[in-house]
């Protein structure tokens, strides 16, 4: 297992057809590799292509050029890694209850899929309820998506990303966005990649060496503040003039 | 008036529509008496209801035949419509290729197909079922195809990222998303299936309300013709109410906020 778990090599992504002059170049020749078991945060100004990278890894987009390999397989291979993705705007299927939304991956992904058919339904429902309770949504399982607030939906969507025990967890702005997140990213991740403004490239790749387990006191240590400060400065530089404030994103492997 | 305003708004609405129907019949009855309209031209409602009650045993088999033909044609038409619509809605190419053909077919006046069905299958139940099927199929096809083609990509992404197959996505996202479109079309399709059935029955059948009305009008039994009309109206309303109830059960998620239609 010497090969990195995720490999983006020279990936360019253009939204729209390449002969269309109005096509948006979202990523330009981005290279990034992430090892198994690593926890990487991806930060950068708004619109720089963070969500685009996550969608590429999740197999929702095909690169215009370059390659995306996850778990040794080209994206599009149905046997690639089990992926949990929490979207930036947590799309819940409006005709299902929150519980059924959370259980959706179990209905699709093997090996749960076969068991779902064999009437493990109530066991899975309990599992969904337990996850919902863990994020403070106890008793909301039977509600419909529109009956929840934005933050509650985001928590529910986190449950949906976790329920099928994914090998790869992709979280797109999991903590409600904005500058505050740089702090959270530094606190949680092993490694932080700072991206440039669009078209996105990786500007800086930084290890976060603080020992684990990390406690809250650590986040007030001077080294920590310095790191956060440096990161924010880097993002501010990366932001094109006139752009809105940075909205960093995180990704974890 | 005071007693009326103290009722719940919903009940008041019901009472008022019932009153409007009764008033319409009274007006009709009075007009016929006042202008001495012959019952061969326009029978009075009281005559029609008398016929309805006295000849019910005679009309009953015709009514069930019409209902049976309508429901069978509707079921087949819906099934075919959903299948064709799903194929067209799932693939861009099929959508582009099939749409003009569909528009062409759906603009043929359906009376024109009845003789063809009669040539193929002989007079009787089969042409009526087929007419009602083809006539009610098109709105279903168009609505399913449109609904599927317009399913939000974000909703599909939820499943795609899990490595779902195309059929999984159709079953778990495409079809539920399309259900409101389907039900909107089913209400139209049901009415059309009914039209198709009666149409075919008046042309080439030996049973059914349409056939009975044709024979009755040949015998100048105009009250019986109108009685047939009333039965058709009652059946139409019953079918509509049934489909509205089923719709509410399955697509409540799409109707939040709006007042639910009362039957
Ligand atoms: N479906 C799309 N069609 C066309 N352009 C798109 C599409 N999605 C994103 N883009 C463009 O690609 C660029 C990168 O978008 P992306 O969503 O990856 O940014 P982001 O880094 O996640 O931003 P934010 O932090 O605001 O969420 C943006 O400039 C956007 O305009
Ligand atoms: Mg984003």
TrEMBL record, chain A:
> What PROSITE patterns does the database record attribute to this sequence?
ABC_TRANSPORTER_1, ABC_TRANSPORTER_2
**Domain ABC transporter span(s) in chain numbering:** 6-247
**Keyword Oxidoreductase part of the UniProt annotation:** no
Give the keywords, sorted: ATP-binding, Cell membrane, Membrane, Nucleotide-binding, Transport
One Pfam family linked to the record: ABC_tran
Family matches, as SUPFAM superfamilies: P-loop containing nucleoside triphosphate hydrolases
Note the superkingdom of the native organism.
Bacteria
Query: Per its record, what are the GO molecular function terms?
Result: ATP binding; ATP hydrolysis activity
What InterPro entries does the record tag this protein with? AAA+_ATPase (IPR003593), ABC_transporter-like_ATP-bd (IPR003439), ABC_transporter-like_CS (IPR017871), ABC_transporter_ATP-bind (IPR050166), P-loop_NTPase (IPR027417)
Instruction: Give the family this protein belongs to, as stated in its UniProt record.
Output: Belongs to the ABC transporter superfamily.
Quote the protein name from its UniProt record: ABC transporter ATP-binding protein
From TrEMBL, chain B:
Q: How does it sit in the membrane?
A: Multi-pass membrane protein
Which family would the database say this protein is a member of?
Belongs to the binding-protein-dependent transport system permease family.
Q: What is this protein called?
A: ABC transporter permease
Q: Where in the cell is it found?
A: Cell membrane
Q: Per the UniProt entry, what are the Gene Ontology biological process annotations, in alphabetical order?
A: transmembrane transport
Q: Does the keyword NAD apply?
A: no
Q: Does the keyword Electron transport apply?
A: no
InterPro entries cross-referenced by the UniProt entry: MetI-like, MetI-like_sf
Choose one Gene Ontology CC annotation of this protein and give it: plasma membrane
The UniProt entry lists the main location of this chain as: membrane
List the transmembrane segments.
Answer: 67-89, 101-123, 129-150, 181-204, 224-246
All copies of the ABC transmembrane type-1 domain together span 63-243
**Keyword set, alphabetical order:** Cell membrane, Membrane, Transmembrane, Transmembrane helix, Transport
Cited Pfam families: BPD_transp_1
């Amino acid at each position: 297992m010497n090969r990195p778990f995720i490999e983006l090599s020279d990936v360019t992504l253009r939204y729209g057809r390449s002969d269309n002059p109005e096509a948006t170049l979202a990523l330009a020749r981005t290279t990034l590799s992430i090892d198994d078991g690593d926890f990487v945060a991806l930060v950068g100004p708004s619109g720089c292509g963070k969500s685009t990278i996550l969608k590429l890894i999740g197999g929702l987009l095909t690169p215009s050029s370059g390659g995306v390999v996850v778990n040794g397989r080209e994206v599009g291979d149905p046997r690639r890694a089990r992926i949990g993705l929490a979207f930036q705007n947590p799309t819940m299927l409006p005709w299902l209850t929150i519980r059924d939304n959370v259980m959706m991956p179990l209905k699709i992904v093997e090996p749960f899929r076969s068991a779902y058919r064999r009437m493990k339904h109530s066991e899975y429902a309990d599992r969904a309820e337990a996850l919902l309770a863990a994020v403070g949504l106890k008793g909301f399982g039977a509600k419909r998506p529109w009956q929840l607030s934005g933050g509650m939906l985001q928590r529910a969507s986190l449950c949906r990303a976790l329920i099928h025990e994914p090998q790869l967890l992709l979280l797109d702005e999991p903590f409600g966005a904005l500058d505050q997140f740089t702090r959270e990213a530094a606190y949680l991740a092993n490694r932080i990649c700072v991206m440039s403004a669009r078209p996105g490239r990786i500007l800086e790749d930084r290890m976060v060496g603080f020992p684990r387990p990390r406690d809250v006191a650590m986040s007030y240590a001077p080294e920590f503040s310095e790191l956060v400060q440096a990161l924010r400065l880097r993002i501010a530089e990366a932001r094109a003039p006139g752009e809105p404030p940075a909205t960093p994103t995180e990704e974890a492997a | 008036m005071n007693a009326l305003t103290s009722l719940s708004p919903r009940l008041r609405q019901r009472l008022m529509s019932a009153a409007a129907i009764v008033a319409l019949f009274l007006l009709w009855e009075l007009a016929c008496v006042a202008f001495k309209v012959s019952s061969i031209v326009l029978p009075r409602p009281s005559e029609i209801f008398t016929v309805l009650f006295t000849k019910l045993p005679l009309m009953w088999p015709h009514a069930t035949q019409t209902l049976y033909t309508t429901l069978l044609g509707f079921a087949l038409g819906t099934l075919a419509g959903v299948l064709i619509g799903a194929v067209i809605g799932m693939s861009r190419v099929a959508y582009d290729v099939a749409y003009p053909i569909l528009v062409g077919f759906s603009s043929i006046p359906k009376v024109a197909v009845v003789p063809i069905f009669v040539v193929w299958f002989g007079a009787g139940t089969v042409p009526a079922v087929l007419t009602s099927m083809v006539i009610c199929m098109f709105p279903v096809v168009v609505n399913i195809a449109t609904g599927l083609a317009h399913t939000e990509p974000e909703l599909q992404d939820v499943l795609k990222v899990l490595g779902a197959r195309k059929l999984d996505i159709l079953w778990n996202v495409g079809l539920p998303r399309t259900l409101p479109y389907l039900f909107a079309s089913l209400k139209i399709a049901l009415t059309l299936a009914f039209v198709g059935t009666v149409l075919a029955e008046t042309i080439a059948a030996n049973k059914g309300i349409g056939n009975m009305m044709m024979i009755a009008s040949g015998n100048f039994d105009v009250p019986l013709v109108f009685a047939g009309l009333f039965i058709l109206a009652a059946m139409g309303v019953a079918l509509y109410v049934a489909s509205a109830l089923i719709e509410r059960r399955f697509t409540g998620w799409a109707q939040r906020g709006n007042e639910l239609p009362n039957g």
